[in-house]
Structures are given as structure tokens and as C-alpha cells.
Amino acid sequence: MSGYVVVGGGVAGLVTARYLARRGAAVTLIESSDHLGGTVTHHTVGGLVLDAGAESFATRKGTVAELATELGLGEDVVSPSPAGAWLQRGSEAFPLPATSLLGIPGIPLAADVLAVVGQRTAFRAFLDALIPGPVGAKSKTLGELVRKRMGQGMLDKLVAPVAAGVHSAHPNQLDLDRVAPGLRHHLLRENSLARAVQTMRELAPAGSAVQGIRGGIFRIVEELTADLQTYGVDIRLDATLDENEFPDATIVMAAPTTGVATRVTLATLVVDAPALDAAPRGSGVLVAAGTTAVRAKALTHATAKWPWLAERADGKHVLRLSYDGAVAGSITELHEIARADAAYLTGIDLPASSVLDFARVEWTRPLPRPVADDGLAYVGESTAGTGLANVIAQATAVATELLAAEDAAAEAHEEAEKEE
User: Fold this and answer.
1) Chain segment 166-221, per-residue pLDDT in tens
2) Which domain covers residue 164, as residue numbers?
3) 134: in domain
4) Which residues share a beta bridge with 87?
5) What total of structural domains would you count in the chain?
6) What is the CATH number of the domain that holds 117?
7) Phi and psi torsions of 300, nearest 5°
8) What is the pTM of this model?
9) Per-residue pLDDT tens digits for 239-275
């Protein structure tokens, strides 16, 4: 079996290398930084070891949970608290509708939908039931679909802040089939986007649409790394690819695209604020566009969302705020911005003295990778889309295809030799 070189040590690269190595391939993994895992990593804030990147994963198809189980983390896969998230729009905050998918309401005239978007927008969305099913069914993006079926108001007031909170991108930038697989199919069957959402919610496994790992998502990277070492993968950190060293190897590119990309800043506060014990905004708050009182785009009340973390925090609270782009100014200035935003979004007074510790992390979200016919295999967020479920599924599929192609080539070679 010929060798493989995986360039990029994020989750996509780790999953690809592991899959190939488990099936007997010789694999070299090259990572340009000094650590593996990419944005799936951790930091210590207020004495607590916390995720510094993703802190949950989508449960669809069980992709991430299946990998976690293979890695020995199955018993540590946990669901969040049933307390739902809220939406901040202007000076008002509302609980997010219960029956929805990425903010798309399953019951447009439900009281919790009316409270968020108002009667006019909700009634326009209700007209979805009267629009023929094929309308919007060929939409390429989530935003295009919602706009055609339920109107611009529903897109702006509800779907955009929810989708952006989950995928860090506007629905107009989100590929429909990647972020909501099956929604197009159910739309055509039900002749209604709202009924399609209801059907998908009914068919989904019991429990939350997201899950996490007790101790942190970053534990997946630790276990993947241990597996690579077990299977003899040659791991090279602070390294770059020298193609002359691997003239006959199959190259798999797991490194992100270069060029201008979206930046995200995460600000984490560990606070002593007993008023937060009641989780006044559930598991967190998504912020609608046009809300000028805060700069944050979302707040996660991590100790309200994850019971395991609340146990470890021993009465302290962890608040994580996300910001679009790199926030200008010093870490002290961001500390104050985040404290003020957290107080506004939770509705709880958080004086400077209540903040026990603070951390700032900046990440770059890669641009979509242009289609290239260069003979290389590509994996990762640039081609798979956002989210661990997408990244892991695509990396596994590409590795499977590579091995299948190698097997087919070997069989063809054997047949040719027999004929000779």
C-alpha cells in the first residue's frame, strides 16, 4: 500500500490520517503550527480548563458521537441543559421558539414566534402553507430558501441571528444542503417549509440538536492524537510540505485556504455572580442585527448550558461572548466591553469586582475552497462547511474514496499481469 501525506493537523487532518492508518497505510501528518487540533483546543480561565474553540457539535446522523465512542469517549458524550437560548433584538429579549430549525419556525403563528417577529412577519411566514412546494426548492442557500418561502422579515428577525450563532455566517452564505440536509426533500414532500421543519423535528432522535463532551470538546483531539501515535503516523509539527521528499505519495490537503477570511473573537469571563444561578437567559443569547447596545453577536452561559461544567465551577459562572472580526484595542479594553455586554445580555449587574478571570481568543474561519483539478484530495472546513459533523463526515468519506481507488488500481494491475 502506497503512502499518504496529510497536510494540516486540524480535526479534518487528524480524522483522515487516522482512517488511513487504521487500514494499514503509511501516513505522514504535517502541521505548520506547534500543536494539533486547529481551533479545537483549550485554555485555562479562572482555574477551569475550557474549550477555546467549538464547545458543542450537531447530533445529526450521529457522526461526532460515533467517532467519540470509537475514541473511548462514548460515556462522556453529554446533552446540554434543556434551558433554551434567547434572542436579543434591540432593547428586548425573547426565548427562542421551541419548534424550529436554525430559526425556521415549524408553527409560524405560535405565540413564541409572534413574540419575536410580530404579527405581520409571522403571517407572511404562515403563507408558506399556500405556496406550491417547488417554490424555493432549488435554492442554493438557507437564506434564499427562507426568503422565498417565508419572507425577508422572518429571515432577518429570526433565522439570520440563529443561523449566524450556530455557523458564524449569514444564511445567505450557508449552503442549504450542508447546514440543513434533508430539508429540501421534506419541503417537496410536505409542500410547506413549516411542515418540513415539523417533520424533521419529529424524525430527529430524542434529545437536543447539539451535544458536547464532558470535560470539553478538545478531548477528541487528544484521543485522535493518541490513536495516530498508536498506528505509527509520522507527526511533524512546525513543518511544511516538501514534495520532493514524497514523490510517490498521495497528498491530502487539510490546511485551510489562504487569503482574506472571516475572523471571530471569543471573550470568556469567569464571574462570581449568584444572580446567574437562575439562568435568566437560559443557555445563552443570540443577538439580532441592528442591536446597537452591545457589540457581541452571541453569549453562551456555559455553566447553565453544561451541567458537568457547573459542577466543576463550584458556584462560579462561565460566560463566553463571540464578536465578528478582530476587536480593536487592548485585552483590557475587550475585558470591559465583554463585561458590559454580558451584563446587558443577561440582565444581571456584573460589576468589575465580580469578574474573577478573563481570556481572549481570535480565530480565522477559512474561505470556501475553489474547485481545483490539481490531483490533490481536499478535506476540512474550506470544502466540508462549518461544524465538526460536516468536517468529520467529509474527511471520512474522502479517506474511504482514496483507499477504494487504491484497491481498484491494485486489482486492475493484477488483472493486467494475469493477461500478460
Assistant:
1) 777 899 999 999 889 899 999 999 999 999 999 998 876 655 688 999 999 999 99
2) 97-203
3) yes
4) 94, 286
5) 3
6) 1.10.3110.10
7) -110, 125
8) 0.89
9) 999 988 998 899 999 988 766 567 889 999 999 999 9
